[in-house]
Design goal:
It is built from 14 helices and eleven strands. By secondary structure, it is α/β, with parallel strands linked by helices. It has one domain (12-372): Rossmann fold, CATH 3.40.50.1780. Strands 3-11-10-9-8 form a five-stranded mixed sheet, covered by helices on one side. It is globular, with a radius of gyration of 20 Å. Mean pLDDT is 93; it is low at 1-9.
Length: 377
C-alpha cells in the first residue's frame, strides 16, 4: 500500500465531510473528476491506470453520499461556455490569446505573478464550479430543497482544488459552488476506514440528470484535452461540423515545454498550444510585447495534466516503475474511456441542454449563464 491512512484522516475537511454524511438534514452529494477513476484502484492493488469508474460510484454510495455525479458533466459545461467565449473572439478578431481556466494551479500563479495575463484567461468556472453551481440550483429545485441544504463534495486529483472552493468568485448567489474537495488519496483512506472492500465492489452508475457526459468531458484529465475539446465545440457551434480528427502537436520554436497545433477558421489558419508552467514565462513576454502567435492556450500545472496531480496515489522507486510510466498508463486509460463515449462534443450533451433550457435561456453565454457559470473578479 502506498498511502498513509492515518495522516489524511486527521485533516479537518475530511472529518467535516464524514460528520456531514451522518447529518440527515443535509443532502450531501459527490462529484468525481475524470482523473480519479484511473488512479483510485492503485491503493487497492489494482493495476496502475485501471478504470474503476463504476466501482468508484458504488464506493461513494457505500460511504453515504446521497447522489454521485460525474464532474465530466461539469467539464462539458465548462467547454460550451469557454468555446462560446472563444468563438466570439474568433469572429471579432480577438483579443488573443485566450487561456483556459480550469487548472487552479495555473490560475493561482497568474493571480500572484502574471497579472497582465488575467484579462486573457477565460472567465468560465472550472468543471467543479460549473457542476456545483448547477447542483445547488437546478438539482436543488428538483428536490424542492434550498441550495443551503445541498453540500457538494468534489473528489479530485489536485490538492489546490481545496483552495479553489474558498475563492469568493466561485460562488452562485453568494453560496459556494463546492463545499469540500477530497483528494484521491483521502478517499482511499476513507474507504479503508469504512472497511469497504473496494476491489470486489459491484458496478454502479452515476445519478441523473447531471451525470451524463461526453468524451470531451472525459479527456479533461490529460494535457491537451481541454484545448482540443474547446476547438471542436467552437467549430461545431460555428458550422455544425463534428470534427473528430486528431490534432497534431509539434514542439514550438519558442520553448520545449510548448506544443502547438494549427486549426482553420473560415479559411484562415490559427495556432493553438498546450503548455505547462515552464512555458508561461515565454508566453508572458510575448503577450506583453504583443507578439504572441497563439489564439488559444491550454495551461496545466502538472506534467501530463490532472492524472499526475499531487492528490493522486504515488509510487515509490522501490516498486520498479517510473513516474513517466505511471503517466503513460493513466493516459492510455483516459483515452480508452474517452473513445467509448457515444458523443464526443460537449454541445451534444442532452442533459446539459435541458439544464440550459431551464436555467440559462437555452444558450451558452447568456446573461444568466454568465451570472452562474463565470468568475467575477
Amino acid at each position: 500500500m502506498d498511502i498513509n491512512i492515518a495522516k489524511p484522516l486527521m485533516k479537518v475537511d475530511v472529518a467535516q465531510v464524514l460528520d456531514l454524511l451522518a447529518d440527515k438534514r443535509k443532502v450531501v452529494i459527490a462529484q468525481t473528476a475524470p482523473s480519479v477513476r484511473v488512479a483510485l484502484g492503485e491503493p487497492f492493488s489494482l493495476p496502475i491506470g485501471a478504470d474503476v469508474t463504476k466501482k468508484l460510484v458504488t464506493a461513494l454510495r457505500r460511504v453515504g453520499f446521497a447522489a454521485v455525479f460525474d464532474t465530466n458533466f461539469g467539464a462539458d459545461c465548462t467547454i460550451v461556455e469557454e468555446s462560446t467565449e472563444f468563438l466570439k473572439k474568433l469572429r471579432e478578431g480577438g483579443p488573443f490569446p485566450q487561456f483556459t481556466s480550469c487548472c487552479i494551479g495555473w490560475v493561482s500563479l497568474a493571480e500572484r505573478t502574471y497579472h497582465e495575463l488575467l484579462p486573457f484567461i477565460s472567465s468560465t468556472k472550472s468543471p467543479l464550479g460549473c457542476l456545483g453551481s448547477i447542483a445547488k440550483t437546478y438539482y436543488a429545485s428538483l428536490l424542492n430543497r434550498s441550495p443551503k441544504d445541498i453540500v457538494v463534495v468534489s473528489i479530485v486529483p489536485c490538492i489546490l482544488k481545496k483552495n479553489e472552493n474558498k475563492l469568493p468568485y466561485n460562488t452562485t448567489d453568494g453560496i459556494p459552488d463546492v463545499d469540500f474537495s477530497l483528494t484521491t488519496k483521502e478517499l482511499a483512506s476513507i474507504l479503508y476506514l469504512e472497511d469497504i472492500d473496494f476491489k470486489n465492489l459491484p458496478d454502479g452508475e452515476f445519478d441523473s440528470p447531471i451525470g451524463e457526459s461526453t468524451g470531451s468531458g472525459m479527456v479533461f484529465g490529460i494535457q491537451g484535452g481541454v484545448l482540443e475539446s474547446c476547438l471542436r465545440c467552437a467549430e461545431y457551434y460555428d458550422s455544425g461540423r463534428k470534427n473528430l480528427d486528431q490534432f497534431v502537436f509539434t514542439p514550438s520554436i519558442y520553448s520545449p515545454d510548448i506544443k502547438e497545433t494549427k486549426f482553420l477558421f473560415h479559411g484562415k489558419e490559427y495556432l493553438a498550444c498546450k503548455t505547462g508552467l515552464a512555458g508561461i514565462r515565454v508566453i508572458y513576454e510575448q503577450v506583453k510585447n504583443n507578439t504572441c502567435p497563439y489564439a488559444l492556450i491550454e495551461v496545466m500545472a502538472c506534467p501530463g495534466g490532472c492524472i499526475m496531480g499531487a492528490g493522486q496515489p504515488l509510487h515509490l522507486p522501490s516498486e520498479g516503475i517510473s513516474p513517466l510510466k505511471v503517466k503513460e498508463l493513466r493516459t492510455e486509460t483516459v483515452k480508452e474511456i474517452t473513445a467509448s463515449y457515444k458523443n464526443q462534443i460537449s454541445a451534444e450533451n442532452e442533459s446539459l441542454g435541458k439544464v440550459y433550457e431551464t436555467l440559462f435561456d437555452g444558450k451558452p453565454g447568456s446573461e444568466k449563464a454568465l451570472a452562474n457559470l463565470h468568475r467575477k473578479r
